UniProtKB/TrEMBL annotation:
The protein, known as: Protein SDA1
Family: Belongs to the SDA1 family.
Major localisation: nucleus
Source species, domain of life: Eukaryota
TM region positions: none
Compositionally biased spans, kind Basic residues: 669-695
Compositional bias segments (type: Acidic residues): 515-555
InterPro entries: ARM-type_fold, Sda1, SDA1_N
Record organism: Mucuna pruriens (Velvet bean)
Biological role: Required for 60S pre-ribosomal subunits export to the cytoplasm.
Length: 709
C-alpha cells in the first residue's frame, strides 16, 4: 500500500491537478520539481556541450524525464507566475538548438511552449520566428504542429477584434523571410516557402485578408527560386476552388451535412429545443449543432463571385504585375507546365482588371493548335483575356487562328466543338470580331450529325439572336427580343442623362391624380344621393305628419261629437284594416302580372317553336309520337353519306404507297440484278441438288425411326 501511495504522490498528472486546486499548499513540491528540471537541463548540456555543436547519442531516460518535467511545468506555470518566471526563456533557448535534439524531445518541448503561448504567458510575436524555423527541420510531426500553432494563434488573436499594430509586426517578420535573396542556402529556401504557405493559409482563412498580404503573395510569383514561384502561382490560380475550412474536422463534416438543409433545420422549434428541452448533455449537442448551422449559413451568404478569394483583386499595380509576369514568360527557361501557369495568371489578371496588354495575344497565338498540349486551358486563357476595352484589331488574328485551326470539315467532332465553344465565348465578350459571312458559315454546323457540334453551333446562333440578329440568315433569327439590336462600337459609352425609371414615377403620380379625381366625383355623387334621400325622407315625413294630423282631427271630431257611439268607431277601424289588406293584395297581383309578362317576353324572344312548359306526366301516346319523330337507321346512314360526298374516297396509307406510278423500287431492282458467273453456277448447282433429293424422297415411304436398337 505504501508503494502505491508513493507512486500516486509522485505521479505528475495527479500532482498537477492538486496544484491547480490548491496552489499555495504545493509550493514546496513545485520548487522540488523545478530544481529537478534545472539539474536535468544541466546534465543534458554537459552531455552535448554548452554550445550544442556536437551530436552525441542522448541518454533516453534523461530526455524522457526532461520532456515530462517541461510539460508538467508548462501546465502549472499560470498558477505560479513568480516562481516560474524564467522557465519560458529556458524553454525557448533550448528550442533554438532543436536541430540537435531527438524528435520526441523536440515535439514535447514544442507542445510545452505552445501551451505557454495559449495561456498568454508568452507573446506570439516573440516565438513566431522560432516556430517558423522549427518547420524547416525535416520532422513531419513537428512541422505540422508548428504550422497549425502559428495559424491558429494568429486567428485566435484576431477573433474578437483586430489589432493592426500587432498584425503588422507579425506580417513584417513573414515578409522578411519571403524576401528574395540569392545568397540563401537550402534552409533559407525552406523558410521562405513555409512563410509563403503561412501567408496563403491566413489569407484563405480570411484572417489576413488585406492588400499587404495579397501583394506579398503576388510578388512571390517573381521569386528566383522555382519552388517558391510555383507555389505562389498555384495558389493564385486555384485559390477560388479552396473552401474556407474551419479549425476542427468535425465542424467541417457537420457543415457539409448541414449546408443543404440549413433552412429546414434552423426553425423556432429547433432553437427552443436547443435551450429548453432534454438533458444538459443533449442541450449542449443541440447548441453546438445550431452554431454550425448558423456558421454555414453565414459562409453561404458571404460567398460571392468566383474571384472573391483571389488575392488578384487587391493588387495595387495590376498593369505592372501583368507586364512583369509577361516579361518573365518570354525569357523563362522553366518547363512547359510552369509557363502555362504564368500564361493563365496573366490572362486572369487582364480579364479581372480589364487591362490592355496588346503583346499577349500574338504570343498566345503561337500555341493555338489542335495538337497542342493543354489546349483547352490555353483557349480558356484566351477567352479570359478578352474584354470590350481591347481593340478588336489586336484580337482578330487570334480569333481567325482559332476558327481556321479548329472549325473545318477535316477536323474531328470534338475539335470542332471546342473551337465553336471558344468562338462563342470570345464573341460574348467582343461581338465586333464576328462578320456576317463567317457567322453564316459557322451556323451551318447546326445540321451536323454529331450532337455536340450541333449544340455548339446552336448556342452561337442563340447568342447572336440577342446581340446582333441582322448578321444571321432570316430562318436562323427566330423571334429576337430586339430585331434592331447591334453591339456597341469600340469605345462607345452610353451616357445616362436621367435617372432610369423616373418616368414610371410620373405615370404613378398621374394615376394617383386620376384616382383622386374619381374618388372626389364618387364622393360628390354620394353626397347628391344622400341629399336626394334626405329630401325624399323629409317629404315622406311631411306626408305622414299630414296623415297623422288628419287622423288626429278626425279623432277629435269623433270624440267631440257626443252623438257617435262606440259601434261607429269600430266600423271605422274595420274599414281601415280592409283598405290596408286590399292594397297588399293589389301589390301581389301586380307582381304576379309582371312575372307573367317577363315569361311571355322571354317566350317571344326565344321563338314560337318552344313548347309551353307543362307539369303533366307523359302518356303512352306521347312516347309513341317521340318514336315516330326519330329517324330510322337507313335515314341516318343516308344523312352520313350525304355529308361525305364532298370528300374523296378513303384509301389506306399502305395501299396508297403500294400503288406505284413510276418505275421499280430499289428492292425490286436488286432482285433483277445480273449475278456473277460463279454465283449463277452455284445457284444452279444448289437447285439441281434440291431437285434430286425431292425426287428420291417422292417414291419412298417414310417409316420413321426404329423404336429399338
Amino acid at each position: 500500500m505504501e508503494t502505491l501511495e508513493e507512486s500516486v504522490k509522485l505521479s505528475l498528472p495527479w500532482l498537477q491537478s492538486k496544484m491547480k486546486c490548491d496552489p499555495q499548499g504545493y509550493e514546496s513540491m513545485l520548487l522540488i520539481h523545478y530544481n529537478q528540471f534545472n539539474s536535468l537541463l544541466e546534465i543534458f548540456e554537459e552531455n552535448h556541450g554548452i554550445s550544442f555543436t556536437s551530436v552525441i547519442a542522448v541518454d533516453a531516460s534523461i530526455a524522457k524525464n526532461l520532456a515530462e518535467k517541461a510539460m508538467f511545468l508548462a501546465h502549472v506555470t499560470p498558477f505560479y507566475p513568480n516562481h516560474l518566471a524564467d522557465f519560458p526563456i529556458k524553454l525557448i533557448h533550448l528550442l533554438h538548438k532543436a536541430s540537435n535534439l531527438q524528435s520526441k524531445l523536440r515535439c514535447s518541448l514544442t507542445r510545452a511552449l505552445v501551451l505557454l503561448v495559449n495561456h498568454k504567458i508568452v507573446d506570439v510575436g516573440e516565438t513566431l520566428s522560432l516556430f517558423m524555423k522549427l518547420q524547416t527541420l525535416g520532422d513531419k510531426t513537428l512541422k505540422k504542429l508548428a504550422f497549425d500553432h502559428v495559424v491558429h494563434s494568429i486567428k485566435r488573436m484576431n477573433q474578437e477584434h483586430r489589432n493592426d499594430t500587432k498584425n503588422r509586426a507579425l506580417q513584417n517578420v513573414l515578409f522578411d523571410m519571403l524576401k528574395q535573396d540569392k545568397e540563401w542556402a537550402e534552409s533559407g529556401e525552406k523558410l521562405a516557402k513555409r512563410a509563403l504557405l503561412t501567408l496563403c493559409e491566413l489569407h484563405r482563412r480570411k484572417v489576413w485578408f488585406d492588400e499587404r498580404t495579397a501583394n506579398a503573395i503576388c510578388t512571390a510569383s517573381f521569386h528566383s527560386r522555382s519552388r517558391i514561384m510555383i507555389a505562389a502561382l498555384s495558389f493564385l490560380l486555384h485559390c477560388e476552388k479552396i473552401e474556407n475550412n474551419n479549425d476542427n474536422e468535425n465542424d467541417d463534416s457537420g457543415d457539409d451535412e448541414l449546408n443543404a438543409s440549413a433552412q429546414v433545420i434552423l426553425s423556432r422549434s429547433t432553437v427552443y429545443k436547443a435551450s429548453h428541452q432534454g438533458t444538459a448533455a443533449s442541450k449542449k449537442k443541440k447548441k453546438a449543432k445550431l452554431k454550425r448551422v448558423i456558421r454555414s449559413m453565414k459562409k453561404s451568404s458571404e460567398r460571392g463571385s468566383n474571384c472573391y478569394y483571389s488575392p488578384l483583386n487587391h493588387l495595387k499595380d495590376a498593369e505592372g504585375f501583368a507586364d512583369k509576369l509577361f516579361g518573365c514568360v518570354k525569357g523563362c527557361n522553366e518547363r512547359f507546365e510552369v509557363r502555362m501557369m504564368m500564361l493563365k495568371l496573366i490572362a486572369r489578371t487582364v480579364g479581372l482588371h480589364r487591362l490592355i496588354l496588346l503583346e499577349f495575344y500574338p504570343f498566345l497565338q503561337k500555341y493555338i493548335q489542335p495538337h497542342q498540349r493543354d489546349i483547352t486551358n490555353l483557349l480558356a486563357s484566351a477567352v479570359q483575356a478578352c474584354h470590350d476595352m481591347v481593340p478588336p484589331d489586336a484580337v482578330e488574328p487570334l480569333f481567325k487562328q482559332i476558327v481556321n485551326q479548329f472549325v473545318h470539315d477535316g477536323s474531328r467532332p470534338e475539335v470542332i466543338t471546342i473551337g465553336l465553344s471558344a468562338v462563342r465565348d470570345i464573341c460574348l465578350r467582343m461581338p465586333l470580331l464576328m462578320n456576317e459571312d463567317l457567322l453564316q458559315d459557322l451556323a451551318l454546323y447546326k445540321k451536323s450529325h454529331e450532337k455536340a457540334v450541333s449544340v455548339a453551333a446552336r448556342s452561337l446562333i442563340a447568342l447572336f439572336r440577342e446581340v446582333c440578329p441582322s448578321l444571321l440568315v432570316k430562318k436562323d433569327r427566330g423571334r429576337p427580343i430586339d430585331p434592331k439590336a447591334k453591339p456597341k462600337a469600340y469605345g462607345e459609352v452610353n451616357i445616362v442623362t436621367s435617372v432610369p425609371g423616373a418616368e414610371l414615377l410620373q405615370i404613378i403620380d398621374s394615376d394617383c391624380e386620376v384616382e383622386s379625381d374619381d374618388y372626389n366625383e364618387k364622393d360628390s355623387d354620394d353626397d347628391e344621393n344622400d341629399d336626394m334621400k334626405d329630401d325624399l325622407d323629409s317629404e315622406e315625413a311631411n306626408e305622414e305628419n299630414d296623415e297623422v294630423s288628419e287622423h288626429e282631427e278626425d279623432d277629435n271630431l269623433h270624440i267631440s261629437s257626443d252623438d257617435e257611439s262606440v259601434e261607429t268607431r269600430l266600423a271605422l277601424k274595420k274599414t281601415a284594416l280592409k283598405r290596408k289588406f286590399d292594397e297588399f293584395d293589389g301589390q301581389l297581383i301586380a307582381s304576379d302580372s309582371s312575372l307573367r309578362a317577363l315569361k311571355k317576353l322571354a317566350g317571344t324572344t326565344m321563338g314560337p317553336d318552344l313548347p309551353e312548359p307543362t307539369n303533366k306526366i307523359l302518356s303512352n301516346e306521347d312516347f309513341q309520337r317521340i318514336k315516330e319523330l326519330k329517324l330510322s337507321k337507313d335515314e341516318r346512314l343516308a344523312l352520313v353519306r350525304a355529308g361525305r360526298e364532298e370528300r374523296g374516297k378513303y384509301y389506306a396509307r399502305t395501299a396508297v404507297k403500294q400503288r406505284k406510278t413510276g418505275g421499280l423500287s430499289n428492292r425490286q431492282k436488286e432482285h433483277k440484278k445480273k449475278m456473277p458467273l460463279a454465283a449463277k453456277r452455284a445457284k444452279i448447282g444448289r437447285h439441281h441438288m434440291e431437285k434430286k433429293k425431292t425426287h428420291q424422297r417422292s417414291d419412298k415411304q417414310f417409316r420413321g425411326r426404329k423404336a429399338w436398337k
